[in-house]
Amino acid sequence: MAAIRPSGDFDITYERDVAVLRQPWHWGVAIAFVIFLFTLPLFASGYLLGILNMIGITLIAVQGLSILTGYTGQISLGQAAFMAVGAYASTVLVTRWGVPFWLALPCAGLVAGVVGLVFGLPSLRIKGFYLAMATLAAQFIIPWFFRNVAKGLFGGTTGLVVPPPRLGSLVFDSGRMMYVVIMAVACLTTIVSKNIARTRLGRAFLSIRDSDLAAEVLGINIFTYKLRAFFISALYAGLAGSLWAHYARAIRPDQFDLTSSVWYLGMVIVGGMGSTLGPIFGTVFIRLLRELVIVISPWIGTLVPALEANVLAALGPMLFGLVIMLFLIFEPRGLAHRWEIFKAAWRLRPFAY
After folding, report:
1. Within 10 A of 36 (CB to CB), how many other CB atoms are there?
2. CATH assignment at residue 199
3. How many domains are there within the chain?
4. 134-138 long-range contacts, Cβ below 8 Å, gap at least 24?
5. Residue 320 — pLDDT band, cuts 50, 70, 90?
6. Which helix H or strand E contains 171, and what residues bound it?
7. How far apart are CA 163 and CA 297, in angstroms?
8. What is the chain's mean pLDDT, rounded?
9. Which of 50, 80, 90, 316 is an S-S bond match for 242, by CB 3.0 to 4.6 Å?
């Protein structure tokens, strides 16, 4: 829905028309949030920082998937596999060739983006369910490759040990140190994602999502733009995979499974497709939901002793499926749309009906 602006908020220049932060207090809130975000490690617990680190890494991957699925309308079930490409590329560059982490990070994104181009080639001829099956192939082929090919380089099923990033004498070997790196990359990718949607590239993505035929009639090379969407999505996944590798300090092919790709797609659905806030809302909501399940599962086990351990272990996937089903039925446009409705109601008060 279109944003409702307060009375007296006029666009008198082009710069003001395209501005994201329109009022001085918008800048104040944004600066205060950034200060709070990067000073959080000074007083937050290790448990909270661990959750935030996972949210930040996941958010980067989900933002890429949102560009592909939410903006371009191309379904992908291989985002976790492209994360694996970024994780292994970054690890090999650092451990085998001595490349600094700060250079290996963007290189890992580029390598994953190139692999994404390969698996995006079928998008010219197929779409919908058939494209989902084509991207599902990536989810099986890529982990198999790291598990069975060049075991001396990729470590086979045992994986690889990943060293912490270094910056001179500063070693990022703890969750608190990695938090700064993860959040800096997450903020940067969020800004880039927001601006992609406001460019010619983003408008082409939206037109392809709405109608391939209409976009082609308008002169848009749909194959080229679909490949660009796959490249950007996989690049984001590669960045997330690189950060995950150096945060977890060890990687294995089974860490990037189909279940993770399905969770990422669910985050896009819950947050809201085709928006910048959607990946943020969806990632935070689903990640906190998973933490809630971890906390309440032992309590449910003591409350109902008859439940077996495998039933409690399946509680998370069952709750995830229920949430996705409820959102598709009652709020298919996601939490971002609900947030826009709330803002409109607030601005129209006391006539918010």
Report:
1. 9
2. 1.10.3470
3. 1
4. 135/75, 135/76, 135/77, 135/78, 136/77, 136/78, 136/258, 137/78, 138/78, 138/81, 138/82
5. confident
6. strand 170-171
7. 34
8. 87
9. 90
Dist. CA 93–CA 304, nearest whole Å: 50
Give residue for tokens 């001829």.
Answer: 125
> Is pTM, for the whole model, over 0.90?
yes
Segments forming the whole domain that contains residue 257: 46-347
Beta bridge partners of 167: 170
Distance CA 108, CA 87 (A): 7
Torsion angle in degrees (nearest 10) through CA of 276, 277, 278, 279? 80
CA 118 – CA 129 distance, rounded (Å): 18
Asked if residue 8 belongs to a domain, the reply is no
316 within domain boundaries? yes
| Residue 99 included in any domain | yes
Cα distance between residue 188 and residue 331, in whole Å: 29
Examine residue 28 and state whether it is found in any structural domain, yes or no: no
DSSP, collapsed to helix, strand or coil, labels residue 71 as helix
Residues whose CB is less than 8 angstroms from the CB of residue 118 and which lie 6 or more positions away in sequence, other chains included: none
Residue 313 scores a pLDDT above 70:
no
Residue 54 to residue 182: CA distance in whole angstroms = 9
Residues 26-69: tens digit of each pLDDT? 889 899 999 999 999 988 888 999 999 999 999 999 999 999 99
161 phi, psi to nearest 5 deg: -90, 135
Query: What is the spatial distance between Cα 247 and Cα 210, in angstroms, rounded to a whole number?
Result: 38
